[in-house]
Amino acid sequence: MRKFLFSIIISLILPILALGADVTHDGVDTQIGVPSATTQVKLTLGEAFFAGDAGYVKVSDGKAYKTDAGDSDKFGLIGLADTAGEINDSIAFNTSGIDDNQSGLTINEVYYLDDAPVTLEVYAGEASSSFFGYGTGSSYEKIAQSIQEAAALSVAGVKAKLGVELGSPTDDVIVRIETDNSGEPSGVLVHANATAAIDGSTLTGSPVDYLFSFPATVSLSASTKYWVVLTRDTNDTENYYEVYRSTSSAYANGLTSLLMSGTWTNNSNFDLSVTLKASAGTISTTPGANLVVVGRAIATDKILIGDLATDSNRTTGEEYLSPEQHGGIYGTVYRQYFTTALPAGLTSGSIVTGMIDYSTQFKYTGTDRGVGHGNATAYGSSDNHIYFMLSGATGSGNISLAATGYVLQKGWVDYTR
Asked: Whole-model pTM above 0.85?
């Protein structure tokens, strides 16, 4: 189940404060239903930031880095950068209240952390596979993919589709971006940060995309050949890995090469399933792989961070993210408000998979009565009753309301879809 987090991870803030981060409050224009102050925390940067970029704190060094909702180590949002800064600069991050460093937002939309955008996709399929890390001084020691693009690239990591070819290897799988030496990998990193490793024991016999995240963003020059090299800690002829690939040329600007008996041998008949990822720190109306709410847009350049329940612009018949997510146990929970009738989007189309909570108010013989939690509540007899429930409870369905002797006054319903 995808993890759901609201915008501030308190468990991260406390260690930061212990490291001496400064917390301040900046006044902003007061709006109805909107906090009148923005809370900030000052952090040292582990990489360059633009104003408005989303950041998380890396536990190992206590510095701020750009978020990536697609990386389980990088989606712990601490706040949005209040100003731009370079590596090792100390800048303020807006952790609650209003961030006014955005642009092009859609008012009243919920914004989430975004996955790191793709810089270059060589191939993303799994038509076939090739093994590597087999032995030293023998066949299939390493495998590599060359790349060359007309534009410069900013790379924060590499995603590769990997599996176990034989046995149960437990050492690290390593990705490196190396310079070119006469048409083959040079063995020299393009930058000290251009390498990352994952625990090989997490790999299985099935193809899975694994993200190798670099310590910091690496720049690749335009019109220059580089190599994405896959290797491991210790080669083993009885326990080794595989990388998935195409069965024909899928990338016009590169090819694959195998290190066999100490010699690189190029093969232009297929390409490896690797994707270069850019630095992230971006927000979007589309949730990333790990669902993290940043806040709601209150202007085209302003986002209200955190508590969505403070929004004063909600209307009936519109779908919102519920302020009560129940710790993510049900997945994403949505909410709609209504007055004298249920919204049409809930009574037709069969979009609702679960009815989580609701609150309603009815009028009965001149007296208001509340009908609360649960999937159905009834009063009286067959000619004097209410029911409020989900049809198709085991799958997608519609919410039904019948009120004989009662008139619906107002309410809301929380649901999954």
From this structure: no
